[in-house]
From TrEMBL:
Family (UniProt): Belongs to the G-protein coupled receptor 1 family.
Coiled-coil residue spans: none
InterPro entries: GPCR_Rhodpsn, GPCR_Rhodpsn_7TM, Olfact_rcpt
Function: Odorant receptor.
The protein's name in its UniProt record: Olfactory receptor
Highest rank taxon of the organism: Eukaryota
Molecular function via GO: G protein-coupled receptor activity; olfactory receptor activity
Keywords, sorted A to Z: Cell membrane, G-protein coupled receptor, Membrane, Olfaction, Receptor, Sensory transduction, Transducer, Transmembrane, Transmembrane helix
Cellular compartments annotated: Cell membrane
Residue ranges of every copy of the G-protein coupled receptors family 1 profile domain listed in the record: 41-296
PROSITE patterns linked: G_PROTEIN_RECEP_F1_1 (PS00237), G_PROTEIN_RECEP_F1_2 (PS50262)
Pfam families named among the record's database cross-references: 7tm_4
Length: 324
């Protein structure tokens, strides 16, 4: 860059779906609707796990954390996405981009670790049921959840600070809906190899290790279930972890597809690929958090009963208020 004029970047332009105005209108309605469903569905789950004494167990404590995490994750990005669909100039300040990047990365990393903690909970419940109350004591599962949040926060702090310390002196157009860290790194006018190495190490700890831990847990879980003599016993045992397994498959399946799908080499293919990447990103960032409470509600009798009780109670309270 020597011998050229350098201008320090003070804001970024989010490209989003700028080249597709019709899609912007359609996706504004869809994303807004899904965001409201996320707030409602996860909010109801949080309230149910807090106020229903039958749900005061490690599994539902983790579920409450997952719901809160999904609300935080989507709230850190969806308002920005919706705004980009409406405004002609889709800009975000440097500091705003830093905060948004930190929150999104932290929530994503935390969810990876939290899902592995939930897998361990299911492993103990199915493989060591008699020791479950001792192993999964309140101090243990609260520490596990806290550790997940701390791990995500520290990882995001390191990666975000390393990324935003880079000089940005040229192009400031981010080809994404939000300040996604890899999209931002592409704009740096300096060597990003240290950042790539750092992110690779972080991914090993918050993505690869949790995946291996979940996989190993479910190998033992399935092995234990298959040894249960009765078909009804096997069905009941599997039903206790089927919701978590479904969420894990959707969550990691989307991440896996984003990073391993083949890259296009021709210009038309690259354009289509960029659009596909953005749609996958929307699925990961909006659809998955919307599905989580639906999956747990539809596949879990305790949650369905608690939600129904909560809705009945809310209806009775509204009637009392309206009669005053």
């Amino acid at each position: 860059m020597e011998g050229t004029n350098q201008t320090t970047v003070t804001e970024f332009v989010l490209l989003g779906l700028s080249g597709h105005p019709t899609l912007e209108t359609i996706f504004f309605v869809l994303v807004l609707w899904m965001y409201l469903v996320i707030l409602l569905g996860n909010g109801i789950l949080i309230i149910a796990t807090v106020y229903d004494s039958h749900l005061h167990t490690p599994m539902y404590f983790f579920l409450g954390n997952l719901s809160f995490l999904d609300i935080c994750y989507t709230t850190s990005s969806v308002p920005l996405i919706l705004d980009s669909f409406l405004t002609p100039r889709k800009t975000i300040s440097f500091s705003g981009c830093t905060v948004q990047m930190f929150l999104s990365f932290a929530m994503g990393a935390t969810e990876c670790v939290l899902l592995s903690m939930m897998a361990f909970d299911r492993y103990v419940a199915i493989c060591k049921p008699l020791r479950y109350p001792v192993i999964m004591s309140k101090g243990t599962y609260v520490s596990m959840a806290t550790g997940s949040w701390i791990t995500g926060g520290i990882t995001s702090t390191v990666q975000t600070s390393l990324a935003m310390k880079l000089p940005f002196c040229g192009d400031n157009v981010i080809n994404h809906f939000t300040c996604e860290i890899l999209a931002v790194l592409k704009l740096a006018c300096a060597d990003i190899l240290p950042n790539v190495i750092s992110m690779t190490v972080a991914d090993i700890f918050v993505l690869v290790f949790p995946v291996l831990f979940i996989f190993t847990s479910y190998v033992f879980i399935l092995s234990t279930i298959l040894r249960i003599p009765s078909a009804e016993g096997r069905r009941k045992a599997f039903s206790t972890c089927s919701a978590h397994l479904t969420v894990v498959i959707i969550f990691y399946g989307t991440i896996f597809f984003m990073y391993v799908k083949p890259k296009s080499k021709d210009s038309l293919g690259v354009t289509k690929e960029d659009l596909t990447d953005k749609f996958i990103s929307l699925f990961y960032g909006v659809v998955t958090p919307m599905l989580n409470p639906l999956i747990y509600s539809l596949r879990n009798k305790d949650v369905k009963t608690a939600v129904k009780s909560l809705l009945v109670w809310s209806g009775e309270e509204l009637k009392k208020l309206s009669s005053l």
